[in-house]
Design brief:
Elements (H helix, E strand, L loop, with lengths): L20 H14 L3 H15 L7
Helix pairs in contact: 1-2
């Protein structure tokens, strides 16, 4: 049975991030192609990385 949908608002915080100009340009280009904001692209990339990161036991 599928879990029931429960709408909720995720709390967001503002942070400062330093990345190379080359990475920023690539990130912006990919976000534009996906028609999403830079912020949304960064959030999705972080989520993907965290969800797919090897656990310490797997390393």
């Amino acid at each position: 049975m599928m879990a029931k949908f429960k709408p909720q608002k995720d709390e967001k915080v503002i942070i400062s991030l330093r990345i190379s100009m080359k990475q920023l340009e690539e990130l912006d280009a990919k976000a534009a192609r996906a028609d999403i904001s830079r912020n949304e692209m960064i959030n999705q990339c972080i989520k993907y990385a965290l969800d797919n990161m090897a656990e310490e036991d797997d390393a």
